[in-house]
Amino acid sequence: MKKKLITWIAATSLAVGLLTGCKAKEETKETQTNAETSAETNAEANAISDNDSEKENVSGETVELEFLFGDPNRTEIFSRIVEDFNQSQSEVHVTFNATGTNHLEELMTRLATNDVPDLTSQLQGYELASYVDAGYIKDIRNEPYLSYIRDTELDTVSIDGGVYGIPMDTQAWGVFYNKELFEQAGIKEVPKTVTQLKECVEKLNAAGITPFAGGYGTEWTIGQFLGYGASSILTPAAVELGDDYKKGNWSFDLPGIDMAFDVLDLVADNTQDRPFDTDVSGQYAIFAKGEAAMMLQGNWSILQIRELNPEISMGMYPLPISEDEEDLLYPKQYGFVINVLAATDEDPAKAEAINKFMEFFLNPENGGGYYYDEIGVPTANAEASPKLDEASEILQSYLEEEKTVFTYYAYEPAGFDAESWKVTVQYLNSGSKDHEQLIKDFDAAFDKYADALNK
Amino acid sequence: MKTKVKLKKEGFDFFRFIFPMLLLYIIFFILPLLQTIGYSFTDYNGINPTVEWTGFNNYLAVFKDKLFLNSLLFTASSALLFMIFANTIGFVLALALNRKIKSKNILRAIIFCPFIFNNVTVGFIWQFILGRLMTDLYPLTGWEVFKIGWLSNEKLVLYSVVFVKLWQTMGYFMVIYLAGLQMLPQDPVEAAVIDGCSRLKMITHITLPLLKPTIFVCLFLAITETLNMYPLLMTLTNGGPGHASENISLYIYVEAFKSHRMGYAAAMSVILTILILMVAALQMRLTKEEN
């Protein structure tokens, strides 16, 4: 009898233990809501007097939003914006969940398990299309906060007339250069042709300065040469093909691509020792410390470089891949995009809460307006006049002259980007400089993922 | 002779004990397995729950996929190398530390220590050592060994990965072989000593044959360890340079979660499951024959 009782107690404890793990999450949410409800009772009187807040404060509860954030370069600044927003009012509380480099995997998993956040980031171009097709992302074309964004900046977040994201910055890619090291080497102007770039590299070598900082241990740092650096060749060709491109009738064997790959070889031959053992943070450090004069990177790196060396005097210019100065275009895209999940429409209180949050940082007059100055890059926000970092000056001039090209990334099928980085690293590692084989490898990778263009 | 009632009661007790774990096994293994098999016949991208039936297209594509064959080759190569070295080193260490030496307990603990780290931690530690640390040590020492790209050279990365895995697990294999050695019957050993058998002949003709069951277990444990290397590879090399250190698990992960080809990845998972079942069946057969 005693043995039977012990058996049943053990089996029941095991079963209860299993259920406890599942229940814990719900209980935590409940506990938080109860605490906030009691804390917000005093704020109820003020909230009721505001007509707009009637919807979210009928019961005096704070509206909870979750922001699943995926840009590691902006995590620190956006966490501050969220904290400032939460402290500035009590009707809405935003939970900031930074996911880091596995953002899309985490988002996929959350959506598959029906644990949907309210806001997320990073979805644009073909990546966005899959989520819009599945009905996860809200069409915000009629939302009041969209009025802050210039109509001309909505290309990669617009699908069939709907708008599915808020582009924040003009993300661009090019060559960071150390102005002091350039002066030391006697380089007076930034290169605008391939020949000028070669002369620039020769002068740096003659002065005993390493021309480029490489971080090929993190594949995308050099892999982006195709998606960004060759955009002036690839993007117009993809656009011209139109539907044929979507059907997968595409090859990277285009006029000018051979010279572009010559530039890739030039960069790889003039980098610090062992670039394949250096990751992206090592690349930033080498450039920030002045151990190399140039670095192929995107302007999202400005914050990191300034953190490492606030005093560095640096600029950024577009990488020349042809001999025609007039052909030189600055590759750009809207890398940092905020997306609203469609599930928020089910709760009018949440939709209103999102409007409030967006207003906080999209309106530069409000508390979150410091974002534009700290980022230091041109913005898609028509109302903001950011204080640009010196590294953004050349980009700003190219934007004003409309000498930019949308990055080929926006046209790549899902899955191709990561594969193209590996192809690039493999090519450089082999040292073969066989451009024909490189084109074949890119073509094979494109063919493998081309089906996604029609989804 | 047991009565029907008693047999029924025993059956009910048996079921009562195994039910919780059986339930967990069905929920976390059987159902996902069936779901994976289902997805492998569709174009599921991991995002849109609406899918189209594609028949065997995913399986046909897998067999034409050079990268899948590349990952299979890496998995097989790493498994073979690891199997040989892990068992050899584990056995030699067990032999060495099975003798009466003063510091054997401390040595056993030190050698076993790396096994308590998980794959992710080990990956980050060795990525730092073989990458950044060696890069910084070369200009200070001028030693050529620090100039070698252990993780960035396509030809060397396989050996670097196997080395790191060996560092992590040699203590584990040592412990298993130690247990095997200590359970060996002493009569054949004593008889051999009386007959004037040399140490080497003792090992080859007596110790190793008697250790066959342990060796079998360790051989297949080594295969399991290499198949579970995915977190180590993610942190140590991320499958690079290029695809040079991409094993089959890592390739499946990339196709499923980064390339949004969940259906295709599911097909590869099913093929991998079949390969593992074949290895498991071989193990069971060999063990049965030995018994």
Can you summarize the main beta sheet of chain B? none
Order of helices and strands of chain B: HHHHHHHHHHHH
Number of strands of chain B: 0
| Number of H/I helices of chain A | 18
- If you consult CATH, what is the topology of the largest domain in chain A? D-Maltodextrin-Binding Protein, domain 2
What's a quick, concise take on this entry?
With 455 residues, chain A is α/β, with parallel strands linked by helices. Chain A is 46% helix and 13% strand.
Task: Describe the 3D structure.
The complex is a heterodimer of chains A (455) and B (291). Chain A has 455 residues and is of the alpha/beta class. Chain A has 18 helices and 13 strands. Chain A has 2 domains: 55-169 and 335-375, 3-Layer(aba) Sandwich (D-Maltodextrin-Binding Protein, domain 2), CATH 3.40.190.10; 171-333 and 390-454, Periplasmic binding protein-like II (D-Maltodextrin-Binding Protein, domain 2, 3-Layer(aba) Sandwich), CATH 3.40.190. In chain A, strands 7, 8, 9, 10, 11 and 13 form a 6-stranded mixed beta sheet that branches. A 5-stranded mixed beta sheet of chain A has the order 2-1-3-12-6. A two-stranded antiparallel ribbon of chain A has the order 4-5. In chain A, β1, α3 and β2 (92-98) form a beta-alpha-beta unit. With 291 residues, chain B is mainly alpha-helical. The interface between A and B is large, with 40 and 40 residues.
Topology:
The complex is a heterodimer of chains A (455) and B (291).
Chain A: H1 2-40, H2 44-49, E1 63-69, H3 75-88, E2 92-98, H4 103-112, E3 119-121, H5 125-133, E4 158-159, E5 162-163, E6 166-167, E7 171-178, H6 179-184, H7 194-206, E8 210-213, H8 220-229, H9 231-241, H10 243-246, H11 257-269, H12 280-288, E9 292-298, H13 302-308, E10 314-317, E11 330-333, E12 337-340, H14 348-362, H15 370-375, H16 393-400, E13 404-406, H17 416-430, H18 435-449
Parallel strand pairs in A: 1-2, 1-3, 8-9, 11-13
Antiparallel strand pairs in A: 3-12, 4-5, 6-12, 7-9, 7-10, 7-11
Helix pairs in contact in A: 8-17, 12-13, 17-18
Chain B: H1 4-39, H2 57-64, H3 66-96, H4 104-112, H5 119-141, H6 157-182, H7 186-194, H8 199-210, H9 212-227, H10 230-236, H11 248-258, H12 262-290
